[in-house]
Amino acid sequence: MAEINWDELKAAAIKAMRSSYSPYSHFPVGAAALVDDGRIVSGCNVENASYGVGLCAECGLVSNLAMTGGGKLVAFYCVDGAENILMPCGRCRQLLFEFSQEGMLLQTTTGIKTIEQVLPDAFGPRDLETGFNAQERN
Ligand code: THU
After folding, report:
1. Which atom belonging to ligand 1 lies closest to the Cα atom of 80?
2. Within a 13 Å sphere around the CA of 84, how many CA atoms are in the beta-carbon half?
3. pTM of the predicted structure, to 2 decimals
4. Is 6-137 a domain of CATH 3.40.50.1820?
C-alpha cells in the first residue's frame, strides 16, 4: 500500500490547476491522485466554446491514469483557483469510483472521507455482472 503524502498530492493538484483552460467559467480546477503503485496522476479542467462539452479536471486525471499504466486510486486531492480544497462534482465522483481502491480517501471541505462516503450506494462495474444484460450473456 502506497504511503499517502497529502502535501505532495496538494502540490500536484495546484500544479495541474495552473494548466487549466477555463476562459468561460474563470474557475480553474486541478486534481491529483495517488495510485496504488505509488505514482501520482493529475488533471485540469478544459473548457469549450460549446459550454456543455467542457471537461472537468477529474476527466483528465482518469485519462492520465489509463495512459500511464492504469491501477487503482488510493487518495485524491482537488483544488480551485485559490488553492482551496474543492469537492468533486457528482459526475466526477462516479468517474473516480470506477478506478478507486476500496476505501479511497479524499480531502474534502469537511475533512478526510472515503469514496464510499461521498458516493453512497454507488453503481459500479460489479453491478453490470448481475443485470438483465449479464443474464442474456450467460
Ligand atoms: N469542475 C471540475 O473540473 N471538477 C469538479 O469536480 C467541479 C467542477 C470545473 C468544470 C468547469 O470547468 C468549472 O469547474 C466550473 O464549473
Report:
1. 14
2. 6
3. 0.94
4. no
Angle value at C-alpha 93, between 114 and 81, nearest 5 degrees: 95
For the chain, give every domain's residue range.
Answer: 6-137
Pocket lining: 29 vs ligand 1, CB cutoff 6 Å = yes
Cell readout for 21 is 483552460
Q: What is the Cα–Cα distance from 23 to 20, expressed in whole angstroms?
A: 9
Beta bridge partners of 42: 32
The pLDDT profile of the chain, 138 residues, written as one tens digit per residue, is 578 999 999 999 999 999 999 999 999 999 999 999 999 999 999 999 999 999 999 999 999 999 999 999 999 999 999 999 999 999 999 999 999 999 999 999 999 999 999 999 999 999 999 766 666 665
DSSP one-letter code for 21? B
**Which of 44, 89, 109 to probe ligand 1 with, by most ligand atoms within 8 A of CB?**
89
